[in-house]
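Lab notebook: predicted structure, single chain.

Context: the supervisor wants predicted structures on file for every construct in the current expression panel, including those that have not yet been purified. This is the next one on the list. No modifications to the sequence; it matches the entry in the shared construct table.
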Amino acid sequence: MIKSSLTRWIGGAFLYAVAVVGFNGEIAAQSGRPPGVPEAGKSERIDEILKRGTLKVGVTPSFPWLFRNKTGKGDEYRGSSWVLAKAYADALGVKLEPVQVSNETKVPIVVSGGVDITISSLAETDARKQVVDFVTYSQATFCIFGLKTNPKAAAVKNVGELDSPDLTFAAYVGTNQAAWIPKTFPKAKMRGVTGSGQAPVDELLAGRADFVVGDSPLEPIFKNAHKNMLSIPADCSKSDLNPVPVGQAVAKNQPAFLEFLRGIEKKVEPKVKQEEIESIKFAREFPDQI
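Prediction complete. Output recorded below exactly as produced.
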């Protein structure tokens, strides 16, 4: 009888120990996810990122939101979008993995799953909202650039004079500028150029275009690199041309992932905005470093 009771007690203790170990293992697995990260199974994207150990982000420079750091100190990139992406990675406990994209591929690559997020600056146009969701973190306006040595460009005194069949604009294919120019200046000619960047200044230098359109913060960089550069308006910081939200793109139908990213953006919003201010200030002081 004593032996039988002892056997039952040992068996019960063993089963209890197995249960405790299993329960603790489950807790350990969950505690391995950083605080605030959705639990396993809530977001396939987040589960994949954690398993991979990296957050893949599509990058192509677009000042002041994302640009190469040429100071020789710190990260490869800087800018408000980079700061925000680092905040995502820190919250997930993973490393950032930049993936080079172009203006033509920065939206398709996130739709196809080639990257988790495109952090290249993207104007939140209606057309883009049909295919991707956005994490909004900034706003942009346009400024128009030409050369003082071009008589046709130098003769233009205001925006209203730009809608002329005698003038030619150039823009990179796949950019918001390429869509905005023909809508805003339907009488002007338009040259689509393949490549990366925001404004194909080479088209001005080669005489193939009279004007290009860039984001307003580019003014000090362009005017430092090209002493004969003019802008409309003359002070781009006062431009009200095409004000549009700027965001990072994620593929649609990922509600938990999108909610997580937007939550992080709210937490670090002051830091992100400060980085944008400091980037623009840096460009005005050291335009050759951009």
